[in-house]
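Figure 3 (text version): structure tokens given as input.
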């Protein structure tokens, strides 16, 4: 057996270490790396099942010019020629790069260098703009540099952890498990501030279901409370912090408990309980994520949190810090090299001395001298014809950007679009003139930086498939063809890493904390063997900050006016992630086990709202905003506030006829960071009636377009499951069945149609449709895709002696369903989550299902009490 390769996970910003042991050309056994400081061997469900995503299904394996395969030379020459011609005719600002937190630091570095130092424009932005740029702007305003002043170790030493706008149990499960371990070990208190009651709230000491957009009022009210109770730190404020004129008068006016409670729509007694707990607990970590950042006032929300920590001296100390936790595996690496349009490189902005310094270091002929267009403005400029050549790397903006319909229109009208990606067909790549096959996770070689500034190696353990190449190589080849051969004479990622490290140290007299001087001269072998390390030590432990006077800055923040419901758009739309999916599903969508937790894109709505709108659970509903509309399956949820709905961000045209959340949010952005506000869009919801429903199961992964109102593709072992619904003649779907021996059963009374296609004794496809009846469980039929000798009895949808329906998947790691868990609780009289784990294994791996298990236990106890009464 091959030796295990130590690498890092492809998903979120936790940056978990992985031990990958190849078992074949495209197969691997995945384990957590017990030696990695971020996860100590633990993995979430997505990381655990990374091995299911390394196949070649859907891969782009060769350069494509239009719809034809091309050689690398032809494709690269064309890209270089088109960019040169566009710059010559329209200037450097007529071209743009849109890149990704999926890139490695070395990829990011060469793309940023090419655009800002050689093309001469700062029109390079990243999808990280959508998830953490408000944190960057907030850090710069408060600290003078984009420094995360915390580490995961602080979670182990905190006495209070406050989660603000973060469904940590789902979006960062390993961090959540670390929080739970701290609670068990030292009694750490947990407070969750989130409009939704998510699974993160299930075991919290307190949940504040604030009105969306009220976070500034909440934090200003908390600071006002701390001032009134004498809980600020006058010595730290005097030595290490400055405040703008009028700051303290502003905090003292209109931020009393009662006013704050009214603004936040929180009971005053509940709010006071939180204020008292915070004030009495010096070791506090406030961990915040997209619920804070993804707002048109996100930067002020970040600074309102930081203000409280600065004013109370809760920074630069063990267990005390504001902590921004990023969404992508290398969002931090992109920030370090300057991947944002608003930064230059190595934590430097566009001040004249920084432009001159970087220009000298790069020997750059045409340095960008001002910030470029941020993501939303960049695609608006494309639509207006100001940008005429675009290169998209490792991201899918036609899905992920707000007002995605306009983004598609812009891509369609752009004269020249290049997409480098691992997937052949995405909602973005269908608009590309040139598609370039990039290396994927398991094939890439370089570094990433996680949320607590830990830099780790991502190492290859699979050979490059087809003609795929690393992103850094692709960018370098284009740069050389544009005339800058010597400046991009890299032979390997280590060459780029050393240059990046040197730039962080170049003429850095200590004004910037980012300084990788110690790693600037390491050899290739040392680079290959690099162990994870966290740069920057414990920032601000000495009370000094990277500002001209060495002091942090309090920032005056004002609560935006929370919009009242509109007549045509009475609901408020919130968007976010599901536990087992990632971004636009180009990777996680390939993993059958990950697909079963939330099989379809759901709109979650409070039962009271649903009743008023005549909408039932599992109905279809049209969610509409001023920007667009899309269809979703309905899920009734007590966790939603009345008047608010939630939809997931993941589904695309490649896998569903609905669920296109990106079509819905407004293209409004924070004025400081340019980050879009995904969390609070006026919306309406309307039930959509259908005459029939059903499902289609097909062997293999060849995509099909189904002629019906609703269809969603779900990867299953050996094939694909499509959930379908619609009106009119359902028999049209039979055209999607493969050829073979046909068996069928039709019940005209119930409008039921069951058709199976058997080829060479194996199930090739099956279609079940009903107008009034119930549909059987899909699991047994899915299992028949791998069975020899299937016969007509398959239409029964259940074999002799087969197991009962396991129910909706709760524990993805071990494929354990709701019905199995409920049965075990009842039959074995299980009383806590560890008992469930011991009995059937659920919750014993990544732990992300433990809040759901706790909730099932609670429901079981309530049912027992009701029965006793």
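Below: residues designed for each position.
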């Amino acid at each position: 057996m091959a030796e295990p390769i130590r690498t890092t996970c492809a998903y979120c910003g936790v940056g978990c270490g992985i031990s990958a042991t190849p078992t074949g050309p495209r197969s691997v056994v995945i384990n957590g790396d017990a030696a990695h400081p971020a996860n100590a061997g633990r993995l979430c469900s997505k990381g655990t099942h990374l091995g299911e995503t390394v196949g070649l299904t859907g891969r782009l394996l060769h350069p494509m010019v239009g719809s034809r395969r091309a050689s690398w030379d032809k494709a690269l020459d064309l890209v270089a020629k088109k960019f040169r011609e566009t710059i010559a005719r329209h200037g450097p600002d007529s071209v743009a790069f849109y890149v990704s937190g999926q890139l490695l630091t070395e990829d990011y570095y060469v793309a940023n260098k090419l655009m800002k130092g050689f093309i001469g424009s700062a029109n390079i932005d990243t999808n990280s703009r959508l998830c953490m740029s408000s944190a960057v702007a907030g850090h710069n305003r408060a600290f003078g540099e984009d420094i995360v002043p915390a580490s995961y170790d602080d979670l182990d030493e905190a006495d209070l952890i406050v989660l603000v706008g973060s469904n940590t149990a789902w979006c960062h499960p390993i961090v959540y498990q670390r929080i739970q371990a701290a609670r068990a070990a030292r009694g750490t208190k947990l407070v969750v501030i989130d409009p939704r009651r998510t699974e993160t709230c299930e075991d919290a000491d307190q949940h504040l279901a604030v009105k969306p957009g009220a976070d500034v009022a909440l934090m200003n009210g908390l600071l006002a409370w701390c001032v009134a109770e004498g809980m600020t730190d006058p010595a730290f404020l005097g030595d290490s912090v400055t405040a703008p004129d009028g700051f303290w008068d502003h905090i003292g006016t209109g931020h009393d408990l009662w006013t704050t409670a009214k603004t936040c729509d929180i009971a005053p007694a509940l709010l006071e309980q939180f204020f008292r707990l915070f004030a009495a607990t010096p070791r506090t970590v406030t961990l915040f994520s997209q619920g804070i950042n993804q707002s048109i006032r996100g930067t002020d929300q970040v600074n309102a949190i930081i203000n409280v920590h600065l004013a109370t001296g809760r920074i630069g100390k063990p267990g005390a810090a504001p902590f921004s936790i990023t969404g992508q595996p290398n969002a931090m690496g992109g920030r370090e090299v300057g991947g944002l349009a608003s930064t230059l490189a190595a934590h430097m902005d566009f001040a004249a001395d920084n432009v001159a310094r970087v220009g000298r270091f790069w020997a750059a002929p045409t340095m960008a001298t001002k910030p470029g267009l941020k993501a939303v403005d960049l695609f608006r400029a494309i639509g207006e014809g100001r940008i005429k050549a675009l290169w998209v790397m490792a991201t899918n903006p036609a899905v992920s950007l707000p007002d995605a319909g306009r983004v598609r229109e812009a891509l369609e009208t752009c004269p020249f679009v290049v997409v480098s990606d691992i997937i052949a067909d995405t909602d973005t790549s269908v608009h590309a003139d040139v598609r370039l096959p990039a290396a994927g996770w398991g094939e890439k070689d370089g570094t990433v930086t996680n949320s607590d500034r830990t830099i780790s190696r991502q190492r290859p353990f699979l050979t490059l498939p087809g003609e795929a190449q690393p992103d850094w190589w692709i960018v370098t080849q284009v740069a050389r063809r544009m005339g800058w051969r010597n400046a991009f004479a890299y032979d390997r990622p280590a060459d780029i890493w050393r240059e990046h490290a040197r730039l962080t140290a170049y003429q850095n007299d200590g004004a910037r904390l980012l300084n990788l001087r110690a790693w600037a001269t390491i050899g290739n072998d040392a680079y290959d063997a690099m162990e994870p390390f966290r740069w920057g030590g414990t920032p601000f432990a000495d009370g000094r900050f990277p500002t001209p006077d060495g002091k942090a800055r309090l920032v005056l923040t004002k609560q935006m006016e929370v919009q009242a419901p509109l007549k045509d758009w009475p609901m408020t739309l919130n968007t976010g992630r599901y536990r087992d999916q990632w971004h636009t599903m180009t990777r996680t969508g390939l993993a059958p086990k990950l697909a079963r937790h939330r099989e379809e894109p759901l709109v979650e709505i409070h039962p009271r709202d649903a009743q008023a709108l005549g909408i039932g659970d599992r109905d279809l509903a049209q969610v509409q905003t001023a920007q667009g509309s899309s269809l979703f399956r309905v899920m009734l949820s007590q966790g939603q506030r009345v008047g608010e709905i939630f939809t997931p961000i993941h589904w695309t045209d490649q896998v569903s006829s609905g669920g296109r959340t990106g079509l819905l949010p407004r293209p409004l952005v924070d004025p400081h960071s340019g980050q879009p506000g995904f969390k609070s869009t006026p919306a309406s919801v309307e039930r959509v009636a259908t005459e029939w429903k059903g499902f289609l199961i097909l062997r293999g992964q060849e995509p099909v377009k189904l002629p019906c109102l609703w269809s969603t593709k779900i990867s299953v072992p050996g094939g694909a499951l499509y959930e379908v619904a619609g009106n009119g003649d359902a028999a049209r779907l039979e055209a999607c069945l493969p050829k073979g021996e046909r068996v069928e059963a039709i019940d005209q009374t119930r409008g039921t149609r069951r058709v199976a296609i058997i080829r060479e004794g194996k199930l090739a496809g099956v279609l079940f449709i009903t107008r009034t009846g119930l549909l059987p469980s899909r699991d047994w039929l899915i299992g028949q895709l791998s069975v020899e000798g299937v016969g007509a009895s398959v239409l029964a949808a259940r074999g002799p002696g087969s197991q009962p329906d396991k129910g909706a998947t709760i524990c993805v790691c071990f494929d354990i369903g709701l019905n199995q868990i409920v049965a075990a609780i009842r039959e074995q009289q299980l009383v806590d989550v560890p008992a469930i784990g011991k009995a059937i294994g659920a919750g014993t791996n990544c732990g992300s299902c433990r809040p759901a298990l706790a909730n099932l236990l609670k429901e079981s106890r309530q049912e027992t009490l009701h029965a006793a009464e």
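The chain has 28 helices and 34 strands.
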